[in-house]
Design a protein that fits this description.
The protein is mainly alpha-helical. The chain has one domain. The longest helix is centred in the middle third of the chain and has 25 residues. Keywords: Membrane, Transmembrane, Transmembrane helix. It comes from Streptococcus oralis.
Length: 68
């Protein structure tokens, strides 16, 4: 929940403060990825392919933010 709120804030301020957007996006997406990993650990059910897709998409979006 916290990670998604931070990433939403990053998207909202994209045109006003680009550097803050990148930092907030990295923090928010890291929290989301860690939360998904931790949830899988608690349930003792890991789906590695889901984590790979989630991390890859977060990295791609971060690179796009940097390039814009």
């Amino acid at each position: 929940m916290v990670g998604s709120c931070i990433t939403s804030l990053a998207l909202a301020i994209f045109y006003f403060v680009p550097l803050a957007t990148i930092l907030l996006w990295i923090v928010g997406s890291s929290i989301v990825c860690y939360g998904a990993y931790w949830n899988g650990q608690q349930k003792e059910k890991q789906h590695i392919s889901h984590h790979i897709v989630r991390i890859t998409s977060a990295i791609v979006i971060t690179v796009l933010f940097i390039l814009l």
